[in-house]
Design a protein that fits this description.
By secondary structure, the chain is an alpha/beta fold. The protein folds into 2 domains: 2-120, Rossmann fold; 123-275 and 299-323, Dihydrodipicolinate Reductase, domain 2 (2-Layer Sandwich), CATH 3.30.360.10. It is built from 10 helices and 15 strands. Strands 14-13-12-11-7-10-9-8-15 form a 9-stranded mixed sheet, with helices on one face. Strands 3-2-1-4-5-6 form a 6-stranded parallel sheet, sandwiched between helices. α1 (10-19) packs across α9 (280-293), α5 runs antiparallel to α10 and α6 (125-133) packs parallel to α8 (176-186). The protein starts with a strand and ends with a strand.
């Protein structure tokens, strides 16, 4: 394995790679000190360190490369690997524009290699349980993401909070996993009405820190979504559904309730923060198994594109109901 981008999420990837019994042959970062620090922090045995991504791919020829870089770099790096026949596991979001989506989907189609996208919360047991329950017609649902991201967080990386490099704010970074869960559970929506604002970090970031959205399907199903990074503290994400039977179901990563009665709870024993979920290890192991067995991975480029299209439409909405464009 090789990994590019040795920032915050890279430790989670390295630990999952090692837990799957695989070897990290190379690390790449424009700041080599970050790569060396990551190797030391995770106990890697002297991986090769590169500052140039293409040079790493050509020199090492890894079986799989993990892409953990700023958002705008995901697609060009994924394409570079796919064109070399190297499998790609890409952090979210898959892309930051419709043009990038088209490019990476086409590159995956042409390649002999697979591309997987890290929407790891689909592996959370409570979210899978909720999806099974919602197969019966829901009357409605909503989700909330309330986290805290202060000025220090955004100043930790020059790309954070910028349209050019992050592609947006709370929707495309912090809330994207929950949005993906909503479309996975309820079905991909066709329309959105969104209101976005920067309420807390106006002098720090140029993107939204708060979003309120209503998503609709062709058959009239409707669900609401609220996300903000201006919370006083982090709260667990929450998805609530009213089923046609009248039951009120609420899922968090570590708790599941029906009519306010707790049916299951889990200890936080994984690698992720409890407000994020712990699905990386399961997703990465599953991706490796698909690669080894040469079976198409279910979270591929087209699947990862669904939530990006929803977010890009929300950014265009400006309070108007608009259609979510397909491919």
């Amino acid at each position: 394995m090789a990994l590019v981008g040795c920032g915050a999420i890279s430790k989670t990837h390295i630990r999952a790679i090692l837990a799957a019994g695989q070897t990290v042959a190379a690390l790449c970062d424009v700041e080599p000190g970050k790569a060396h620090a990551l190797a030391e922090a995770t106990g890697l045995s002297a991986p090769a360190v590169f500052t140039d991504y293409n040079a790493m791919l050509d020199a090492v020829r890894p079986d799989i490369v993990h892409i953990c870089t700023p958002h705008d770099l995901h697609v060009p790096m994924a394409i570079a690997a796919l064109e070399r026949g190297i499998h790609v596991l890409c952090e979210k979001p898959l892309a930051v524009s419709r043009a990038q989506l088209r490019e990476v989907i086409e590159a995956e189609r042409r390649s002999t290699a697979m591309l997987g996208v890290c929407h790891q919360n689909r592996y959370e047991p409570n979210m899978r349980r909720l999806r099974e329950m919602v197969k019966t017609q829901p009357q409605g649902g909503y989700a909330t993401v309330v986290w805290r991201r202060d000025a220090a967080y955004y100043r930790s990386g020059a790309w954070r909070g910028t349209r050019a490099h992050e592609g947006g704010g709370v929707l495309i970074n912090q809330a994207i996993h929950t949005l993906d869960l909503m479309q996975w559970i309820f079905g991909t929506p066709t329309h959105v009405t969104a209101h976005l604002s920067n309420d807390f970090l106006r002098d720090v970031i140029e993107v939204e820190d708060t979003a309120a959205c209503t998503f609709e399907s062709e058959i009239g199903a409707r669900w609401q979504f609220f996300a903000t990074t201006s919370g006083a503290v982090d709260f667990p994400i929450r998805i609530c559904v009213r089923l046609a039977s009248g039951e009120l179901v609420e899922a968090q990563n570590h708790q599941f309730t029906v009519n306010h009665q707790v049916l299951s709870g889990e200890d936080d024993t994984g690698e992720g923060k409890w407000v994020w979920g712990d699905g990386h290890q399961s997703l990465i192991r599953d991706f490796y198994e698909h690669v080894q067995e040469n079976k198409p991975f279910w979270l591929d480029a087209e699947e990862g594109a669904k939530v990006v299209r929803m977010i890009l439409a929300a950014y265009q909405s400006n309070g108007q109901r608009i259609r979510i464009a397909g491919e």
